[in-house]
Amino acid sequence: MKKGNKTFMAKPVELPAKKWYLIDADGKVLGRLATKVAMILMGKDRPEYTPHLDLGDHVVIINSKKVKIKGTNKPQQRIYQRYTGYTAGLKEMTLQEMLDKKPNDVIKEAVRRMLPKTNLGRDMLKKLRVYSGATHTQIAQTPEVLEV
Fold first, then answer.
1. Is the pTM for the entire model greater than 0.85?
2. Which residue from 60, 87, 89, 137 has the least number of CB within 10 angstroms?
3. Which CATH number is associated with domain 19-68+103-145?
């Protein structure tokens, strides 16, 4: 049995400081933007990535209403469903309706589906802030502009 090269696993006490990133979604493709954001939220862009710890950074996305969708029929064919909790309470919206009414939810939902489906994934999603306009309220955190 070999001795030596051990796999590095970060400990909860030695977590690195969290950074803040600002991403402008104007003209960016939804899926490619969501994968990059999910990687940052999970911490997979860091060398000390550990699957069972939340090592990710905070992400602020602006201009969510200007995100691009690839495909000509996708805005009409993709359907988002949610359940109100009442009998016959299944609500459906197409991607185009979501972009018109709730552009922030489109990006949040795309990122949420790429994160782990556990308590850890829900904690990671809390570090994502999405704004439909060009202004945001995280000015005090001085987010670093990140080009996707």
1. yes
2. 87
3. 3.90.1180.10
